[in-house]
Amino acid sequence: MKLSELLNNIECSILCGSGDIEINNLVYDSRKVEKGDVFVCLKGYNVDAHKFARSAAEKGASAIVLSDEIDLHDVTVIKVDDTREALAQLSANFFGHPAKELISIALTGTKGKTTTACMIRSILEAAGIKTGIIGTLGIVIGNDVFKTNNTTPESFEIQQALRKMVGEGCKAFVIEASSLGLKWHRTDAIEFDFGVFTNFSNDHIGDSEHATMEEYLNCKKLLFKQCKLGLLNRDSDVFESVAADAKCRIETFGFDEGCDVYASNGELTRRPGFLGVSFDLGGYDSYKVHVNIPGRFNIYNALAAISVCRHCGADREAILKGLETVKVKGRVEPVHISEDFTLLIDYAHNALSMENVLTTLRKYDPNRLITMFGAGGNRPKIRRYEMGEISGKYSDLSVVTEDNSRFEDVMDIIADIEVGLAKTDGKYVVIPNRKDAIRYCIQNAEKGDIIVLAGKGHEDYQEIKGVKYHMDERELIAEILEERQQ
Q1: Residues 6 or more apart whose Cβ sits within 8 Å of residue 46
Q2: Cβ atoms < 10 Å from Cβ of 112
Q3: Domains of the chain
């Protein structure tokens, strides 16, 4: 590809060199630069890649894209106002704008993005529309999952993934557009067919994220300046603000009968080994919907998914099938091993997320609510105290075990968790080995129990002394069941 083609639709100045040169790749990590590459100098919270521009040139980069003045020679230098904006457009140009070949769906909101993305994919695939996902679970294409460093990866990884999705036969994709992903222009250069707003609450405020709640919300609003149709939660406290600033058409979902898609008669449902919700759908169509994921809040996620999919060729049958069969890895994910009790895997790894999960499950009136969990090493100790206190408060039995101990001793971490447990009347047992702890939960389960394996969720590793060892709780459960049979 010629550099001039790569620079198409980008406001820039070529300070030295020529646009009439062949380039091999687009790179923003100076350690990966090879001869003939274009290196883009990104500015992050901790590192400014402009300081590596000379190193990239010495490694053979054909061109350097920058926003600061740097005295460089013997290399083509391109000046732009914002290198992150430029990277998004450069990446789209480099991969041939693959988003234009797909139904494009972006989700933003404080909670619910991952679950809603999985619901949308499940529905569309039930309708025969192969769909990829980019988000917390990684890049998901068919049965393959590619890990990413961020919920919303850098724009280069997004465009690269979209091109791969097209090559693998996908017809649609769903991306979790985090507030930081939108703020840092990672989703730029894509005009989404659909943008979804799930909800908004206090989160991601801090030095390396957002300065204020206002800025946090404003970043989420950016999505509705780059999509054709916005589908908004009408029941959100910030609905009016989001809708007022949107540059796209708006449709709504919620519990209000004035919404384009709405729910009524929502109720919690339970069958052997599974928990879920059901509701009557209203608005554009009327029928009963069942979702095999627990929690009333999942009615909103289902409404968001239906709001999108009804525009994408999914009929009633596909919507019902998709929502009845959807699974979200590591999010109150059921592992069915008995008709007598319910076993769930969840990513809850701090006090707030643990409280949310346990209070949700309490509403299903279990015989006992059993929570197995640990806490991460080399993290603030207060988290351990809080998690212990929350589990002791809401669980009938806490099974305390290991998590990513990192460079700490597991028993020291467990001792801190016990400090929190001691503030409650909750019963608990300590079983340091995680597989042994899972075995204990299964062997001692009683009819009607709900068991939550908390903390690991979708993770498939255990970090000890700086080494990540493979460990997937689904595999551990299968091993335990096989050992029992033998």
Answers
A1: none
A2: 23
A3: 3-94 (3.40.1390.10), 98-325 (3.40.1190.10), 333-485 (3.90.190.20)
**Per-residue pLDDT, 279:** 98
H or E stretch covering 341: none
Q: Are 234 and 252 in contact (CB under 8 A)?
A: yes
Question: Which residue type, as a one-letter code, is found at position 480?
Answer: I
In terms of Cβ atoms closer than 10 Å to its own Cβ (0-12, 13-18, 19+), residue 406 is middle
- pTM for the model stands at 0.93
Q: What is the pLDDT of residue 46?
A: 83
Which regions of the chain are under pLDDT 70?
A: 202-209
**Under a CB-based contact definition with an 8 Å cutoff, are residues 398 and 421 in contact?**
yes
Residues sharing a CB contact under 8 Å with residue 111, sequence separation 6 or more, in sequence order: 198, 199, 201, 297
Q: Which two tokens stand for residue 157?
A: 């990884």
User: What tens digit of pLDDT does each residue of 133-185 get?
Assistant: 999 999 999 999 999 989 999 999 999 999 999 999 999 999 999 999 999 99
d(CA 298, CA 122): 15
C-alpha–C-alpha distance, residues 167 and 157, integer Å: 15
What lies within 8 Å, CB to CB, of 409 at 6+ separation is: none
pLDDT at position 209, please? Answer: 67
Residue whose pair of structure tokens reads 């991601």 in the numeric block: 204
Q: Which residues contact 244 (CB under 8 A, 6 or more apart)?
A: none
